[in-house]
């Protein structure tokens, strides 16, 4: 099925109807069945509680550059490239994009702010969910637009055995980032699965849109200040209010 066929139906999602999420997923995709074999999992804000640090680092960069910004707006931009986020600020403040030199310098400031912060914690509940996936023999693939090697290198310590070294899509493996479906389609290819065999786990609207457009069953977890309505609107097949709730409920839905 062509990917573009998935896009319009997102606006018809009716999360309040009480309809079974998998039934709704099958209707929106046109697939005949859903047999989850692989979990394709975002990192920032999903496996790690890193988004508050990112938002603080962005806000401090904007303050130091004299650019008006709200700290919480940066949660909504999660998944964008650094330059894209800087251009939002520039367009709003100066009515133009940043030059490549300005974007590079300001993103450097943001990155240094982030690196100066204390280490981030694993997201509570994520370990339980990954162990459930592994007990059900799901293939796990990390799918992040991040190039934060400090976090990626912690995965083996915090989530031992979850992500094989060749089961990771990072900023280095993809040219078209979220919300384009490419990162999740590449993850499916790595795992050797089809969309109807895939579960995407995300926390932010652009990531949810990427999962939705890939044709996977897309799970959104509200782990920060992003309103759940924004996650539904991005195309989530189901939304949980926390990773703990997701860990307690999602396996019952997937493996019933
Ligand atoms: Ca994320």
User: CATH homologous superfamily of the largest domain - what is it?
Assistant: HAD superfamily/HAD-like
**From the alpha-carbon coordinates, what is the Rg to the nearest angstrom?**
18 Å
Which class of secondary structure composition applies to the elements? alpha/beta
Name given to the CATH architecture of the largest domain: 3-Layer(aba) Sandwich
Give the low-confidence spans. Answer: 1-14
Q: What order do the strands of the largest sheet run in, or round the barrel if closed?
A: 3-2-1-4-5-6
In the CATH scheme, the class of the largest domain would be Alpha Beta
What global shape is seen? Answer: globular
For this structure, the CATH topology of the largest domain is Rossmann fold
User: What fraction of residues sit in β-strands?
Assistant: 5-15%
Q: Approximately how much helix is present in the residues?
A: 40-55%
Ligand species: calcium ion
Assembly type of the shown chains?
single chain
Please give the number of β-strands.
Answer: 6
Mean pLDDT figure: 91
Largest sheet: 6 strands, parallel
How many discrete domains?
2
Tally of alpha and pi helices = 12
Order of secondary-structure elements: HEHHHHHEHHEHEHEHEH
Write up this protein.
- The chain has two domains: 21-50 and 122-254, HAD superfamily/HAD-like (Rossmann fold, 3-Layer(aba) Sandwich), CATH 3.40.50; 51-115, Orthogonal Bundle (DNA polymerase, domain 1).
- It has twelve helices and six strands.
- It has helices at 21-29, 51-65, 73-76, 82-94, 100-115, 126-135, 149-152, 155-158, 182-191, 205-214, 228-233, 243-254, and strands at residues 38-41, 139-143, 168-169, 198-202, 217-221, 238-240.
- It has a six-stranded parallel beta sheet with strand order 3-2-1-4-5-6, sandwiched between helices.
- Helix 2 packs across helix 5 (100-115), helix 4 (82-94) crosses helix 5 and helix 6 (126-135) runs parallel beside helix 12 (243-254).
- The longest helix has 16 residues, at 100-115.
- The radius of gyration is 18 Å and the shape is globular.
- The two termini are 27 Å apart.
């Amino acid at each position: 099925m062509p990917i573009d066929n998935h896009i319009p139906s997102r606006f018809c999602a009716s999360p309040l109807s009480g309809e079974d999420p998998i039934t709704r997923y099958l209707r929106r995709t046109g697939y005949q069945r859903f047999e989850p074999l692989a979990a394709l999992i975002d990192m920032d804000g999903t496996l790690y509680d890193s988004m508050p640090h990112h938002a603080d680092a962005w806000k401090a960069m904007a303050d130091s550059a004299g650019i008006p910004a709200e700290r919480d707006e940066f949660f909504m931009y999660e998944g964008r490239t650094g330059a894209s986020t800087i251009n939002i600020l520039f367009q709003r403040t100066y009515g133009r994009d940043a030059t490549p030199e300005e974007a590079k310098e300001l993103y450097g400031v943001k990155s240094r702010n982030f690196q100066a912060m204390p280490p981030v914690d694993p997201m509570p509940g994520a370990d339980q969910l990954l162990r459930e996936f592994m007990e059900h023999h799901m293939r796990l693939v990390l799918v992040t637009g991040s190039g934060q090697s400090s976090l990626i290198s912690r995965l083996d310590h915090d989530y031992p055995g979850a992500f094989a070294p060749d089961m990771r899509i990072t900023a280095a493996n993809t040219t078209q980032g979220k919300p384009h479906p490419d990162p999740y389609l590449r993850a499916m290819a790595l795992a050797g699965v089809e969309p109807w065999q895939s579960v995407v786990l995300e926390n932010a609207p652009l990531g949810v849109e990427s999962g939705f457009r890939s044709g996977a069953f897309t799970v959104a977890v509200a782990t920060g200040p992003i309103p759940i309505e924004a996650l539904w609107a991005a195309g989530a097949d189901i939304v949980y209010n926390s990773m703990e709730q997701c860990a307690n409920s999602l396996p019952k839905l997937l493996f019933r």
